[in-house]
Write a structure and sequence with these properties.
Blueprint lengths: L1 H6 L13 E3 L14 E4 L4 E4 L4 E3 L1 H9 L3 H11 L27 H18 L4 H20 L6 H11 L1
Antiparallel strand pairs: 1-2, 2-3, 3-4
Helix pairs in contact: 2-3, 4-5, 4-6, 5-6
Length: about 170
């Protein structure tokens, strides 16, 4: 993430990827913010901008900065860093069973684990479009971060899991 930030012109030290760094974010207002409004967090390999009120990972940052979709952001990362292309294929025809329990989870951690399991199955089976799957993984990662941070997320994982089971 810190290398992506540096390569996109943000004032961060790519050699300092092991510690938090503050920088100005240009994704809010008129794009000419000179105040240090964002911070890179090595523990989650993400950034947060207080002015935007948003956390971003590398793909989300690229989507917003370059005005591209998920595939465009992944392709940029693959080419920029010399990574092999992801081996995505078309989803198989017909319904794909998802073995998610139907009983309510007892704790937010249980709900997050169930969401992760459902997403892992959907990823493995290519059961939904990659853009939608990436959006669900983004929600998962945000929930995991909030749980680690101690934020109150009562009811949120269950609503996301119910949405996933519904669709």
């Amino acid at each position: 993430m810190v290398q992506v930030l540096a390569d996109l012109g943000y004032q961060v030290n790519p050699d300092g990827a092991d510690h938090e760094q503050q920088f100005s974010c240009d994704l809010h207002g008129d794009g000419r913010d000179t105040k240090k409004s964002a911070r890179y967090y090595p523990s989650s390999n993400s950034m947060y901008c207080w002015a935007c009120g948003r956390a971003r990972d590398s793909i989300t940052l690229l989507r917003e900065k370059k005005g591209t979709d998920f595939n465009g952001a992944v392709t940029w990362l693959e080419r920029h860093f010399g990574l092999p292309d992801l081996p995505w294929e078309e989803a198989p025809a017909g319904p794909v069973p998802v073995d998610v329990q139907t009983t309510a989870p007892r704790t937010p951690e249980d709900a997050l684990k169930r969401l992760e399991r459902a997403l892992a199955i959907a990823t493995q089976e290519r059961a939904m479009p990659i853009e939608r799957l990436a959006a669900f993984w983004e929600v998962h990662d945000g929930l995991a971060y909030k749980l680690r941070d101690g934020s109150d997320i009562t009811g949120l994982p269950e609503r996301v899991l119910a949405k996933l089971q519904q669709d």
